[in-house]
Amino acid sequence: MISKTLTVVNPSGLHLRPAGVLSQAAMKFKCDVIIECGDKKIVAKSVLNVMAAGIKSGTEINLICDGEDEEEALKTLSEAIESGLGEL
Question: InterPro entries given for it (predicted)?
Answer without folding.
Answer: HPr (IPR050399), HPr-like (IPR000032), HPr-like_sf (IPR035895)
